[in-house]
Specification:
Number of helices: 12
Radius of gyration: 58 Å
Order of helices and strands: HHHHHHHHEHEEHEEHHEE
Number of domains: 3
CATH class of the largest domain: Mainly Alpha
Mean pLDDT: 74
Strand content: 5-15%
Largest sheet: 5 strands, mixed
Low-confidence stretches: 1-13, 506-524
């Protein structure tokens, strides 16, 4: 036998896999969040440090420019006092613009209390210098301008302002050195932070890996237990099978391959046994069918044989009278019904479905059994709705089902009994139709109730036991179902559910009027 090899199917991770991976996932997400936060903080700190360093560098540059302007004023005024050359004063650079530029940069810096006091003294000196420079910058006389220049130089006004300017330059250089030191410290702190994150990440990854490995090992050990149990169960069938319980994945993989091979061997044996059992069941069913056929044929043949032997024993005068012929005709009909039942069971006919009105099928079936019901004094009633009940069905086979149920009901109630055939929509949107056949007989015996639709099961002393089996097959072929039960007030009730025809707006229900050759034939 050839075994099909099944390819592995990709499945979603099981809950156990998620449970094992959850710690590692949590650690990874935590480290990712910390790394992102650290990166954001470091970028902001670096940006702030660069901005502060840039501002301090601009302040240092402005202080150097201011100091150079003050030195030029000092030298120019000193020569002007000695020579009186007016060109020296006209060529002096502006002092207010570099001073204002320097003050603009220095006020942006955080210099502390001492630095703020130094800036305040510088402003005072600057105001004094501006007041003293007014005669020189205005259209004053030469004598007044020379006197002002002499007072600025020899009165130590301009030298004090130069000292204050040099102090400001030293202050800004000191701030620059501090900013550079903070920048270097930030660089070191960034390096240590990255190193710490790397160490923590490596350590957390290692711990998570160990935890995941231990979880997998526990899962493997737990998995090996049912595998070992399965191997023990197969021991008596395919021999001993070694399964490792150490949690080693390589050994477990070997055990699984070995187990798979043994399971395949067991499956082969089971399939072979199943085929053998199926052949035995088929032979048993065939034997049961043959035994039932022989039993049903023997009785009518025996009756006819008896009549023939009786006529033959009378010699030349031996003849069959009218009564004997009626008996032989009845037995022949019985043989025909029996053979037809077996044929219907062994070779079910194909469905020839059309759109039919269930009321018409029931009316024709009742008409077939009306004479027998009158003969046995059985009251047969039908409860049909006024509107059509259409379905797609084989009217002949459906009539065969109803005929069998009615004849069985006649046999059950006996003379003077009552049989009711009722049809109605199922009520669930009229998607199904209900057919009920109920009687007031003794009901279904408990001995056959659970096996009533099985082949060769009958509650009557005569009959093949195939009628209800054929009925169930016909109903199921129509997409329906049939059930039987005893009624609380006595008698049996058979209920058939069949799918109703889907309504079509452009088509009226078509009724099947074709004859199908169904006759009153008891197929119990």
């Amino acid at each position: 036998m050839t075994r099909e090899e099944h390819q592995p199917v990709s499945e979603a991770p099981s809950q156990s896999v998620w449970r094992m991976a959850l710690p590692s996932l949590a650690v990874s997400l935590t480290l990712l969040a910390v790394a992102v936060l650290a990166a954001v903080v470091l970028v902001q700190m670096r940006r702030e440090a660069d901005r502060s360093l840039q501002e301090i560098a601009e302040a240092v540059e402005a202080s150097a420019e201011l100091e150079q302007s003050v030195v030029q004023w000092w030298k120019g005024l000193d020569e002007y006092v000695d020579t009186g050359d007016e060109a020296l004063v006209r060529d002096l650079p502006g002092l207010q613009q570099p001073t204002d530029r320097y003050l603009l940069h220095i006020e942006k810096l955080e210099l502390g209390r001492e630095g703020k006091q130094t800036i305040a003294r510088f402003r005072q000196e600057y105001i004094v210098v501006l007041e003293e420079l007014q005669p020189i910058l205005s259209n004053s006389s030469t004598e007044e301008r020379q006197a002002t220049a002499d007072r600025l130089i020899n009165g130590f006004i301009l030298p004090r302002f130069l000292d204050a300017t040099q102090q400001q330059r030293e202050l800004t250089q000191q701030a620059l050195q501090q900013a550079q030191e903070r920048n270097r410290a930030l660089t070191r702190w960034t390096g240590w932070t990255l190193l710490l994150l790397g160490v923590v990440g490596a350590g957390a990854g290692t711990l998570a890996g160990f935890g995941l490995a231990r979880g997998m090992q526990r899962q493997l050990v737990q998995l090996s237990v049912p595998i070992q149990t399965a191997a023990g169960s197969l021991h008596g069938v395919v021999g001993p099978l070694q399964v490792s319980t150490s949690g080693n994945i390589d050994q477990l993989e070997d055990s699984l391959h070995d187990l798979a091979g043994h399971v395949a061997s067991v499956v082969d044996r089971l399939q072979a046994a199943e085929r053998q059992s199926l052949r035995k069941d088929q032979m048993a069913a065939l034997g049961q069918l043959a035994a039932g056929l022989a039993h049903e044929l023997r009785n009518p043949l025996t009756s006819m044989k008896t009549l023939v032997e009786s006529a033959r024993s009378n010699g030349a005068a031996g003849t069959l009278d009218e009564r004997d012929l009626e008996v032989m005709d009845e037995e022949i009909r019985r043989l025909d019904r029996t053979l037809q039942s077996f044929l219907d069971y062994a070779r079910p006919p194909q469905l020839n479905t059309t759109s039919v009105d269930l009321r018409d099928v029931i009316g024709k079936t009742v008409q077939l059994v009306k004479a027998r019901a009158d003969q046995q004094s059985i009251d047969i009633e039908t409860e049909l709705p006024a509107h059509p009940l259409t379905l797609v069905a084989d009217s002949g086979q459906l009539r065969q089902v109803l005929l069998n149920l009615l004849l069985n009901a006649f046999d059950s109630v006996g003379p003077g009994g009552r049989v009711v055939l009722e049809v109605e929509p199922a009520g669930d949107g009229d998607r199904e139709l209900l057919i009920r056949v109920r009687d007031n007989g003794p009901g279904i015996p408990d001995s056959v109730r659970d096996r009533l639709f099985d082949p060769f099961v009958s509650s009557k002393s005569s009959g093949t036991g195939l009628g209800l089996t054929i009925c169930r097959r016909i109903v199921e072929n129509h997409g329906g179902r049939i059930v039987a039960e005893n009624r609380p007030d006595g008698g049996a009730e058979f209920t058939i559910r069949l799918p109703a025809e889907k309504p079509r707006e452009d088509r009226r229900p078509a009724l099947s009027r074709a004859g199908d050759g169904t006759s009153e034939r008891d197929i119990d």
